[in-house]
Structure prediction request, 184 residues.
Amino acid sequence: MLSFDHRSIKNLSVAILAIGALMLAGACTVRPLYEDTRTADGQGATEILSSIEVKPVKTRQALEVRNHLIFLLTGGAGQPAKPEMVLVLDVSSLTASAATVQIATDNEPSAGTVTMTAEYTLKDSISGETVSKGKRISIASYDKLRQEFATLRAVRDAENRAARELAERLRLAIVHDLETRGTR
Prediction:
């Protein structure tokens, strides 16, 4: 008759779980975002991102997003002379009160938010084929003050903060899209 020692079964199950965890960790494909791996044609991530042209936009808020995004994609080098891909942005901005009921007195500031939304389409510049598309949102808050100019300036500063954050989110989204597509 066979007899089993409960401790040996427990040790065996712990060993099997440890081996399974190691196998899962080995299958992980997490890499550093700024890793400059080369594609089959020898291009690195930096070259691919700097070959993206960002199309002109119409509003001041969209221009803030576009300018920050161009800087993030090219490292400050400006638009590429011969772009491999074209990015089309549609940016909208909404300014609203942060609370539906303001409880502030005349001497206290109340809060507001700026919600900036960008829909993007990344296309191949030669074939016109859509490489990726998506939508990103950024929110920045500000204080509404009694002085009208101070409030206008606070709104403008919140729009600029939201634009910078939105540009960073767009860059991350583009890198992710290119990575999952296999371009990078």
Q: What stands out?
A: The mean pLDDT is 82. The radius of gyration is 25 Å.
